[in-house]
Design goal:
Elements lengths: L6 E5 L9 H11 L3 E4 L32 H10 L5 E4 L9 H15 L5 E3 L5 H6 L7 H17 L3 E4 L4 E5 L12 E4 L4 H10 L2 E3 L7 H14 L7 E6 L4 H10 L3 E5 L5 H15 L8
Parallel strand pairs: 1-2, 1-10, 2-3, 4-7, 7-8, 8-9, 9-10
Antiparallel strand pairs: 5-6
Length: about 290
Amino acid sequence: MGVRAVRYGIVLFTSDRGITPADAAAAAERAGFDSFYVPEHTHIPVVRAAAHPRTGDASLPDDRYLRTLDPWVALGTAAAVTERITLSTAVALPAEHHPITLAKAIASLDHLSGGRVSLGVGFGWNTDELAHHGVPANKRRTVLREHLDAMRAIWSEEEASFSGEFVNFGPSWSWPKPTQKRIPVLLGAAGGEKSFTWLAKNADGWITTPTEEGLGEKIELLHRIWREHGRTETPEIIALAGRHDAAQLAKWAELGVTEAVFGLPDRDAEEVRAYLDRLAGKLGLTGTDRR
């Protein structure tokens, strides 16, 4: 596998405190980063049966889960103060929204940003949250697929319609259409045969989990399943990084990782901007468009 240049991105765990998405995205773009991501939870049910993937029980590792901003409003503010950096989610939960209205929001953002949007999606670990939106836990993959298919119809067809198990609407008009011919969809999920099969059928790339292990073997599995499903282009592979580790980044490049994404600390704006500048220096970014 040939070594490709790795892009570098930032994910801001948005909340109603600390640096704003607009400020963080603008600072990331000035520092030379290629991409900017935000997460999504519409709400967190107080009483939950679902275990968090990192804690293994109903406890949460960060109180920002309770405080996340709407991702499309957050990215809209970021789009208004940036020109180059791509705008995405790590991850959004389209199953929790009606696809007609969500398609409108995403198409509007892509139109207004000049075609800079991609859509990172997840199945949703918080099945209690999904249940409040009427999504059965054992059907969340099906609901996500239908919502994506319905949105793609709206984005690409002049008179769009859709008929599925969970989504149905007759011929309809909806503009704007996205500036891009196709909005890239990235699946954020633990690497495995089931997730990669869904990805090869429905998405364009993979976002790892923060604690993903055995990345080399999983990337090989992804490429095998990808080819078996007749996909000829190369899948995007976005690895969520912790601290800067030059050796790890070099290894990821050899494995075929296309983008490494670093989380921002939960600090005030001045501290976050200083962190971005330090990280950019370690990565050798110059503050100019690297692409």
